[in-house]
Amino acid sequence: MKKYLKSLIKIVLPLALGGGILWWTYRDFDFSAVSHTFLYEMNLWWLALSLVFEVLSHVFRGLRWKQTLEPLGERPRTGTCINAIFLSYAASLVIPRSGEVARCGVLKRYDGVSFTKSLGTVVTERVVDMMCVMIIALMVVALQFDVLHTFFVEKGTNFDSVRSLLISGSLYLWAGVAVALCVGGYYVLRRMSVAEKVKGTLRGFWEGICSVRGVRNLPLFLFYSAAIWGSYIMQFYLTFYCFPFTADLSFKAGLAVFITTSFAVLVPTPNGAGPWHYVVISMLTLLYGVSEADAGVFALIVHGTQTAALILLGMYAMIKTTQTDPIPAFPKGKE
To answer: CA-CA distances (angstroms) from residue 30 to 178, 208, 293?
Structure first.
């Protein structure tokens, strides 16, 4: 009963949070404008091209994931890795952040890849992705500092408070306490008489985290990482050309809105629904002169089509993986 209730909460709370933010954002919105824009004003060719980059981002992520698993002695098939990525994003639409576990389960079931090792590589991926986000964010700050400053000031961000927090000794004191607790917990765990299975699980997880150090072709790994985020950026920016009211916005504008939404989707709602819409509408109206009604239409259609694409890719991957022999008839790593 407790397990069922916990699973229910994991589904209901993100839906309620996202739904609440969406309701508040669109509480006075005329939804008839969405169908009119989609049927009579949109350029669907640009939308289709943006969705191509959505698919490519997942393909590159699957290829990079396979590369990080190879130093661990795991040789999953390329198709399994890519389909697992498709499934992971679809699963996260139901339970946010569940996709990481789901894709590791796919590799375990169909290609016999160690679950703990693959989960460790997912943690490594998240670290690399965060570094990519920070690099893009620094680029945006350099290119659009005045614009971003205006946006955060309009939204009530007190930069003096942020600066005070960063130079506050208490921040670094608590950070030091957290690090000390982690280190102390690690050594206590090492001295405890725990089951070998638990030790093996932790060892496999740690090996997965460190897998990036053993990547054989580092330039290719960096290319995949750049290609993933380049695809994300192009996927979003090309949607500007779908609408007459955003077609004239610059690439720098697209980059600024994109990186801000990248932080907004950290809120655990299905595919960032709610926070993503709020940030896009706010930036388009406050900074780039798009009317609130048009910005609302843009956010609904773009997010809706991208979410629909994730669902279709998840269905495709589910069909492909269920048709795959869980025990390959050829050695691991052979295509």
So the answer is: 48, 49, 8
Q: How many domains does the chain fold into?
A: 1
Report yes or no: 247 and 240 within 8 Å, Cβ to Cβ. yes
What are the tokens at 91? Answer: 């699963």
Q: Which two tokens stand for residue 81?
A: 């890795």
Q: Is residue 22 part of a domain?
A: no
Decide: residue 283, CB within 10 A, 0-12 exposed, 13-18 middle, 19+ buried: buried
Tokens 């680029």 appear where? 139
The reported pTM is: 0.79
How far is residue 37's CA from residue 9's CA, in Å, rounded to a whole number? 36
What is the reported pLDDT for 295? 95
Proportion of the chain in helix, strand, coil states, percent, rounded to 5: 80, 0, 20
pLDDT at residue 171 in the model = 45
Chain-centroid distance of CA 283 in Å reads 20
Residue 166 pLDDT: 47
Report the SS3 class of residue 44.
helix
Count of other CB atoms within 10 angstroms of residue 273:
22
pLDDT at 266: 82
41 lies in some domain:
yes
Domain extent, residue 136, equals: 29-322
Inside any domain, residue 2: no
**pLDDT tens-place string over residues 252-292:** 999 999 998 988 888 888 888 999 999 999 989 988 889 99
- Nearest by Cα to 281 from 269, 267, 266, 296: 296
Count of residues making up the chain: 335
Tens of pLDDT along 2-15?
Answer: 666 666 677 788 88
34 within domain boundaries: yes
Indicate the SS3 state at residue 231: helix
Residues in the chain with pLDDT values less than 50: 159, 162, 165-166, 169-172, 189, 193-198, 200-201, 205, 329-330, 332-335
Nearest-angstrom CA–CA distance, 212 and 317: 26
d(CA 296, CA 148): 20
Closest by CA position to 65, among listed 52, 82, 87, 89: 82
